[in-house]
Write a structure and sequence with these properties.
Layout: H1 2-8, H2 33-64, H3 68-90, H4 98-116, H5 126-152, E1 160-164, H6 169-195, H7 199-202, H8 209-233, H9 239-258, H10 266-280, H11 285-310, H12 322-337, H13 343-350, H14 362-375, H15 384-387, H16 389-393, H17 407-415, H18 433-464, H19 473-488, H20 493-511, E2 515-519, H21 520-525
Antiparallel strand pairs: 1-2
Amino acid sequence: MKAMSAGFTNGRSATAIDVSPRFRSPAANSTVIAEVLSKGKQTARQLYPVIVAAQIVAVVYIAFSGRGIHAFAYAMIAFGALFNLRSWLLTTAAGIPLAATLAMQDLIWYGIPFITNHKCLALESDNDILKAAACVLMFDLSLAAGRSLGLNATKPTGGRVMVLDLENVQASNRLVKLVLFVVFVCMLLEWSFVSGRIYQFLAFIPFSSINIVRTALSAGESGAFLLLGFLLGRRTLSKTHQFAFIAIYLLVFTARVTSILLSSCVALIMAVMLGLYLGSGKIPYRVLLASAVVLGFLNFGKFEMRARYWQTGFESVSVSQLPNYFGNWIGYSVDKITNRVDDNVSSNADDLGQSPLERFTNIEMVTYAFHAVDDLGYPTLNGYTYAVCWQAIVPRLFWPNKPRSHIGQEILNVHFDRQTQKDTFTTYISWGIIPESIGNFGSLFGPLVSGLVLGAILGWMEKKTINLSLFSLPVILVCFLWISLSIAILQAMSVWLSSMFQVWTLLICVLYPFMRRVPVRQIISAR
């Protein structure tokens, strides 16, 4: 625990934390987002040549592997992502890099298949590969253009803004205690899901409400850990609160891992890392490295675990079973690393998953979308999946029979014959932002229109929050939007908006009582 504590505080000694009321962070409510991100931008400028060099190396590697068309396609995708990153770096003030983050996600999800020579690429012609890469490039360039329009057409927020009252010692202490209580309750609920006991209580409510409970859990945990990470980075948490924060985080993290859905830990890790970065101004490399090592190691054996536990209908883990459960997992991971895997378990595992790099197959969805529209003659949806987004946002409390939040993906899959409507009640085939845009407006106008509109909205948000306090309500909400961009590229718009609306609603309800209205000019003048 002592080592973990050091990691969370970026090497600062825990004994240096003064918990007396007279010790306060240096004007926490007056530190604007541009001031903190300016340090991150400086680091990004230094790393940018390295990132560019890495892309050049990747292109050369693909080309020398005898795949010249793939190399050119990857170069197009990389250019679009780097163009967005460069646009953010060249902007005078340092706003939240929303568009750049989304574009870099495109590079990861659409570019990696070319580096790994994914088997899905062998099923496509060279012409289709180039066309898919061109769609991604058009989206990213439109995203950058839309961001520029949003920045230039918007003025920074003026007037008054709601800000967490962190300067008031008593109010701040009450908030910390409340947040710790919230994550403690979330931790208990997480483990009740792991043990299966919660389903005894959820049996009395509609099954669809389980998703609402899980979304509220995710929002509560991410929001709480973001705030606690910030205060820990500022070194304003007492030793007791620091210990409680780290202990609860590890318990929640372990509960998420126990589900054998390692991707469910990503938002949790990002919330903590973002909080630590905003509080200390330094990237928490130790937390990042520790998380990557743990998840990377467990990932080797997760498919064997799924084959052993999921196929047998195993749905819960009691506390007494945990040592044996994780012992098996560690054993599978070690065997996989050392190539000592049981053939029966391995064959079952192959049916349940892929290696981490094999999961990056989203380029396949882009080719499917424009094939359906351009070659097979499926009519475009003309924005229908965007028009129904409001249905996913309306709370089920006010509309008990409302459509599912995945209605956008349901429409796309059924309309383009990826699934029957009956199949969508079992699982969804994920589309993502770019394929969805092609399904709505075609392979040319889809990426152009969606990139331009989304870029303008993200640019507007970036400009509106640039001179606001780190813990003003708009910045908190946009920070959670920033976190969500790590998986947004894989979701239909209705799913993404529904998730963000629920998270934002919960954050506003919990944080509003601890906020006060502050003139923006007062925040700026206090810098």
